[in-house]
Write a structure and sequence with these properties.
Two copies of one chain form a homodimer. By secondary structure, chain A is of the alpha+beta class. Chain A has helices spanning 5-9, 19-26, 112-116, 126-151, 156-171, 182-189, 193-205; strands spanning 32-36, 41-43, 51-57, 59-65, 71-78, 82-83, 98-101, 105-111, 175-177, 209-212, 215-218. In chain A, helix 4 (126-151) runs antiparallel to helix 5 (156-171). The A-B interface holds A 64, 66, 70, 72, 74, 85-93, 96-97, 116, 127, 130-131, 133-135, 137-142, 144-149, 151-154, 190 and B 64, 66, 70, 72, 74, 85-93, 96-97, 116, 127, 130-131, 133-135, 137-142, 144-149, 151-154, 190. Chain A binds a DNA duplex through residues 154-157, 181-183, 191-195, 197-201, 213.
DNA sequence: CTCTTTCTGTTGTAAAAACAACAAATGTAT
DNA sequence: ATACATTTGTTGTTTTTACAACAGAAAGAG
């Protein structure tokens, strides 16, 4: 578990807290480490959780498969990011989504109640951490709204352009890589993969963008 | 402003705080009251805010009109609910959406910074309030995820059934009213109004549901 | 009450997406 | 290197949606 303290130091939740202080807080927060193989479920729809989780290694997808087998990916979690923060409230219901490991991953769990209530021992950074979590939930909130912005577009083309142009802005360059393959991107935008591939082809032919695998380049001068 | 203290007492943010205590905190939190006429903009896309807002009277829509005029309603805010909580973080960017009053409304503003940092005067309930806001953001988070669940459905029919069945669960009855008219519901689900009306007719004819205006009734035995 | 505006359901048409099936390209394991 | 599995692009068909236009119902104003 000690191995991952340098990772924790760089996470949002422990922003502004030194490695030694993190170490001293681990036991106070009931910290545990769980390892998941690629493809394994980390959490399942319908579960009830009360821990805050931090992905310290690997990649996760928060997703849901509906009754007919349509998968939709809500979010990709990268190492250093937390998840489950929205379920720390006492009145929160069961999980609505599955969380699966898309590659071998390690997750660190922290007792939610102890995180939110002042602990008896000397956790000087307690209020700082609560505020950090609050900001993190806020940020996730804004991300969800942004994603809703993509999803609310009517056509596959618009969804693609909405997502890709946001990604270009976010990564600060018209040339960027996305963290999805085609099927995953389709699941993320909730569209059909082949139809999306087709639309990508049209956008390329119309001069809007170039791409190779998960590498994209948006082009200003389109000869549409 | 005093008029609305009983309203504030019933809000999430002031849960567990008495009317007198709320009154004494108003000045400490820079409380201000703003009145908006039906149809007026409360906030506009691109603005930067640092206040937490509580709707004390009326109804608001958080929505966005895209370049081509397609409106999408992200959320309806009812009296007693707060908004803007996700923008209290220092690193938050400009607003992505408009907020408009769908009926005459009154909004109370609180200084975001003062809410999050302990104030010099005797605000005994400060940490309680911070936690309240945290839970509120978490709840909004879960709501957004739920809405994403509707939006990720492929067809108008599935979107409708997803939304309506959730509403039935939420209101604890297969008979319920929704807070939208047809155009607003279409904007909320990001579909075409006439196509949606058509689909509603088909669902009614197939025996899935009955409706009259914004009153709906889901039927178990469908003769589809 | 009458006029006007808004809201809702219906229909036909054009456009787009889902679906299915397949081939080419790429990646992986042995 | 070969065999096998996965990913991606392409095409044709079917289904669904968006769009437009309109008529009846309901609501609101004078």
């Amino acid at each position: 578990m000690k191995t991952y303290i340098p990772v924790l130091e760089k996470t949002r939740i422990f922003a502004g807290v030194s490695e030694e202080d993190i170490f001293s807080m681990l036991s106070c927060l009931d910290a545990r480490l769980c390892i998941y193989k690629k493809g394994a479920y980390v959490l399942r729809q319908g579960e009830r959780i009360s821990d805050l989780m931090v992905l310290v290694d690997g990649t996760l997808h928060i997703q849901r498969d509906d009754y007919w087998g349509n998968r939709s990916i809500l979010e990709q979690i990268a190492a250093g990011e937390m998840f489950g923060e929205a379920y720390l409230s006492p009145e929160s219901d069961v999980l609505l989504n599955d969380v699966i490991a898309v590659e071998n991953s390690a997750v660190m769990l922290f007792n939610g109640k102890k995180l939110l209530t002042t602990c008896p021992s000397a956790c000087r950074f307690h209020s700082r951490i609560v505020q950090n979590i609050f900001f993190a939930v806020s940020e996730k909130n804004r991300k969800l709204v942004q994603k809703l912005g993509h999803m609310s577009r009517r056509s596959t083309r618009e969804k693609l352009l909405s997502y890709l142009s946001e990604e270009a802005v976010r990564q600060g360059s018209p040339r960027f890589s996305i963290p999805f393959n085609r099927q995953q991107l389709a699941d993320f935008l909730s569209v059909d993969r082949s139809a999306m591939s087709n639309e990508l082809g049209k956008l390329r032919d119309a001069g809007f963008l170039k791409f190779d695998k998960n590498y994209f380049e948006l082009v200003k001068e389109s000869r549409a």
